[in-house]
Amino acid sequence: MSANNDIASAFEELDLDRDGQITQDEFHTAMTDRGEEITDDEISSIFADADTDKDGKISLSEFTDAWTRAEQA
Ligand SMILES: [Ca+2]
Ligand SMILES: [Ca+2]
C-alpha cells in the first residue's frame, strides 16, 4: 500500500487545483516549478501514453496505471 500512497502524493503535487485531474498546463507548471525543463512535445508524449481515455487530462487511476507500467518497464 505504501507504493500507492507515494503515487497518490505525487499525483497531488501535480494536480495543482485539486480537481482530481492533471491537465497539460498543470503538468508543465509543476515541472517548471521544480526546476525540470520539459518541452510541449515531451508532455504530449507523456499524455499520449497516460491519458488512456483521451479526455486531455490524467486522472488518479490513469496516473496509477502509467506509474505501474513505468515501474514494470
Ligand atoms: Ca487539476
Ligand atoms: Ca484521461
From TrEMBL:
User: Which Gene Ontology molecular function entries are recorded, alphabetically?
Assistant: calcium ion binding
- Chain segments annotated as coiled-coil in the UniProt record: none
In this protein, which residues make up the domain named EF-hand?
A: 2-37, 38-73
Against Pfam families, the record matches this protein to:
EF-hand_7
Q: Which SUPFAM superfamilies match?
A: EF-hand (SSF47473)
Tell me which PROSITE patterns the record gives: EF_HAND_1, EF_HAND_2
Q: What is this protein called?
A: EF hand domain-containing protein
Q: Which organism is it from?
A: Herbihabitans rhizosphaerae
Task: State the taxonomy lineage.
Answer: Bacteria, Bacillati, Actinomycetota, Actinomycetes, Pseudonocardiales
